[in-house]
User: Fold this.
Amino acid sequence: MEGTLAVVNIGQLVTLAGPARPRTGEEMCELGLLQDAVLLVEEGHIAAVGTYAELCSQLSLGAVVLDGGAGFRWRASKK
Assistant:
C-alpha cells in the first residue's frame, strides 16, 4: 500500500509496549492499553500508535482515514 492510512477513533487499542526483549513470567500478561487511539500506517508498515491527542498533528493531507468507531472512510484535507 502506498501513502498513509490512519485508523482513528479506536476505542481501545492493545499494544505490546514494554521492554525491547522477550517477555518472561508475569510479564507475559502485561499489555499496553490505549484509549481513543490512532494507528498510522505509512507505505504498508505501522509507523505509529498513540492517542488521538498525541498523533493528530501527524495526519498528513491526502491520507486515507478510517473511522474505527463508525466505519467511515475519508481523505484528510485542510479545514
Remarks:
- The chain is about 5% helix and 45% strand.
